[in-house]
UniProtKB/TrEMBL annotation:
Coiled coil regions in record: none
UniProt keyword list: Transferase
All copies of domain N-acetyltransferase, residue ranges: 11-175
PANTHER family: ACETYLTRANSFERASE, RIBOSOMAL-PROTEIN-SERINE ACETYLTRANSFERASE
Gene Ontology molecular-function annotations: protein N-terminal-serine acetyltransferase activity; protein-N-terminal-alanine acetyltransferase activity
Taxonomic placement: Bacteria, Bacillati, Actinomycetota, Actinomycetes, Kitasatosporales
SUPFAM superfamilies xref list: Acyl-CoA N-acyltransferases (Nat) (SSF55729)
Name under which the protein is recorded: N-acetyltransferase
Cross-referenced Pfam families: Acetyltransf_3
Amino acid sequence: MDPVTLETERLVLRAFAPGDVDVVYDACQDEDIQFYTPVPVPFRRQDAEKRVYEDWPEGWATDKDYTLGAFRKDGGAFVGSYCLTRLSLGVFELGYWAAEKQRGRGYSAEAARALCDWGWAALDVHRIEWWAMVGNTGSRAIAEKLGFTVEGTLRHRVIANDGRPHDWWVGGLLRP
C-alpha cells in the first residue's frame, strides 16, 4: 500500500521523508523513549536513517506496518511516530512515541485516534491492541483516553534495554 496522509485539527500525519532523519534522531535521544520503546541504545544517526530510509517504507510496501510521523500544523514541529502493525488476520497493534517537548498537549491521543480511525476504514481490522511496559503511565493514559480496555498484565513479557525482564500491560479496542 502507498503511504497515506491524514489530517486532524492540529496535526498532519504523513510518511517519514529523508529530511526527517534529524528529528527522529533527536527525539530518540530521550531516556524515556530509549527505556520504554524497542529502539537501539545508544540510538545513533544510522539507526534513524535505517528507520526512515528502509524500515518504515518497507512496512508500507509489505502491508505489515503503517508508520506515520505527526507534525504540528502551526509551524511543522515534529510530534512523534504513530503506527499500526499487523499481528494476525484482522488484529493490529497501535504503537506510538512522542518527542519530549510535545508531550502533555493531547497531540498523541489526537494522532493515534486519527490512525485508528483510518485503520478501521482502510484495513481489515476487527481488533487493535496496545502494549506498554508497566510504569509507562503516559502511554496508558492515552490508550484509555482512546477507549482501550486494559485487559491484563503480562509478567516478564520482554527484556528491555536495561537487560531485565519487565511486566507489560495489554489492552484492546474492538471495531466500533
